[in-house]
Amino acid sequence: MTEFEASLEALPDPGHDHDVLLVAGSLPEVARLAPVATAFAEADRIRALTVATGPDPMSVHEAFEALGVPADVTVLLREPPPPQPAAVAATLMTRLDDVLVDLDPSAVMVYGGGMTAAVAAQVAFWRQIPVVHLQSGVATDDLLCPFPQEANRRIIGQLASLFLVAAQSETGSPVGPNTIAVGETMTANPQPADLSFARLVRRVWAGGPRLVLVGLDRADSLGVLAGLPDLLQREPDIEIVVFGELAGHGAAYPLLQHERARVVRSMPLAELVQLVAASAVLVSDDPELVADAPGLGTPAVLVDGPHVPQPGDSIRSILSPAVMTTVRQILATAGITPVAPSDGLAAARVEQAVAWMFGLCPSPLLGSPSPTNTQV
Questions:
Q1: Which secondary-structure segment (H or E) carries 239?
Q2: I want to staple 18 with a disulfide (CB 3.0 to 4.6 A). Which of 106, 198, 256, 259 is the partner?
Q3: What homologous superfamily does CATH list for 195-333?
Q4: pLDDT computed for residue 130 by the predictor
Q5: Quick one: pLDDT band at residue 49, thresholds 50, 70, 90?
Q6: How do strand 315-318 and strand 300-303 relate by DSSP bridges?
């Protein structure tokens, strides 16, 4: 179901005693919550409703669609909010409160520390609706780094009833008592349909090469495109993927002949999510894609774009002539970090933990007979 300007109509009879709203306001949040929605549907004991919202709700709606999970509710805004955090929060707050009143869910799930997650958690708390926090806990020692995500994450931690972490926190971690390690749910998203991209992602996660992802659309970014062959020569352990309008330009021809480069005109969003997450650095003239990259774990370089740096920001806005120098600096400090193979059960663990919270199963741990390893 999609909600436009009118108030929400009643959704079909759920056939379940409990329902959970999975609230996303950005691409990184969709990348973590879409597999969770699929896990809830497969278990069929709790109804999960995906909510596309945020400053640009239609892009979130499209992201859910691209990852194979349609948005059940799309909370459109009457006008785009100004970029200031207070304006975004004020715009989202009443709209999300209307959704909670109309749907009256059993719980609300949010991911990370984005503004949408913070607002949704606050509104749910005011309505006395339990909050489930995916990727909860303290990420850094500095409240202002990254800004404002770290502070938002800690605020949500004060409001949440269930804390789902990627890995088990150390004793004494400032996370709530109901803390359950579930793993990284993003790994359960569809792998790239292009087999060459799928193999590249697997090789990157196995420990090498390092991937430089380059998305260029504007003619004034041609200088960046022309500098990529030299980057390949200087950095023998990298591979480059170029996509966007400039991929069809003659300046991309030398890359077509290079064994460590791949050039494509268009990139499906489902594949783009996996490639961004696997990249050592993203270079793009698309401000929205660059803004999403840190949430997927990747530093980004914005070519000739407006960007106001914040504490802990991993986005750098660079004029075209200096882009390659900046990319080499990032590569010099970013080593290859092998990622342990995923068992593909992270999203299923999330569903199990929520089912336990509702008393639908005896253990919060998938496949465990009792919650002996979890504080309650």
A1: strand 238-243
A2: 106
A3: Glycogen Phosphorylase B; (3.40.50.2000)
A4: 98
A5: very high
A6: parallel
Which residues lie across from 210 on neighbouring strands? 238
Q: What is residue 12's three-state secondary structure? A: coil
DSSP output for 240-265:
EEEESGGGGSGGGHHHHT-TTEEEES
Is there a common fold for 19-184+342-357 and 195-333? yes
Spatial distance between the Cα atoms of 135 and 140, rounded to a whole number of angstroms: 13
d(CA 125, CA 144): 24
- As a whole number of Å, the end-to-end CA separation of the chain is 36
Q: Which residues contact 141 (CB under 8 A, 6 or more apart)?
A: none
Q: Which residue has the tokens 């973590």?
A: 32
Q: Is the overall model pTM greater than 0.70, yes or no?
A: yes
Domain residue extents for the chain? 19-184+342-357, 195-333
Q: Residue 46 — φ and ψ, nearest 5°?
A: -135, 135
Q: How many angstroms separate the CA atoms of 376 and 370, rounded?
A: 12
pLDDT tens per residue, range 318-371: 788 889 999 999 999 865 555 566 788 999 999 999 999 999 999 999 864 434
**Could you tell me the CA-to-CA distances from 319 to 142, 220, 303 in Å, in that order?**
29, 10, 6
CATH code given to domain 19-184+342-357 = 3.40.50.2000
